[in-house]
Amino acid sequence: MRKRTILLCILLTLFSVLIFCAGCSKKNDEDTQSKDGTGIYYTNKTYTKLIRKDKDIDVQMNSQLGAEELLDEMSRVGRNSKYKTAIPEDINISNVTVSNNIAYVDFSVGYKKIEPNEDVICKAAIVYTLTQLKGVGYVEFTVSGRPIIDTDGKLIGALNRDSFIFGELPME
Description:
The protein is an alpha+beta fold. It has 3 helices and 8 strands; from the N terminus they run H-E-E-E-H-E-E-H-E-E-E. The strands form 2 sheets. Strands 4, 5, 6, 7 and 8 form a 5-stranded mixed β-sheet that branches. Strands 1-2-3 form a 3-stranded antiparallel β-sheet. A hairpin with a 2-residue loop joins strand 1 and strand 2. The termini are far apart. About 15% of the residues have low confidence.
């Protein structure tokens, strides 16, 4: 009888711990559009962190127009701001088109001159911003119409939020 009571107490304790842990599960990407609006991703002054700022932008609109509007919003930062655009000033976005769940972003040739940390933050900010749009699950980058190749000589291809697997993105 005593063993049965001890076993029952252990099972109840384990069950309680499981219920408690279920409520503490890691937050997934359900915050792509928070109650406060659409997240526009910027960076700090040293390109080491992404900073999300909520704006009142409808992400249910036409995905082509939405992509253009979100990228335009990413380039606007106040003079006295604590953050800055994640798109380095050396590069311009020549074109953006949306087709088949992919936003194609074409950079100017200045893209080849940016530092590796700027490159990762820039791509992550654009991916995190554009994939909030209805009809955009991936972003593919090109430079002057040519696909971007990584340091191993492989095509980077289409990226989504899960593409940044180097650990959690540094965000504020």
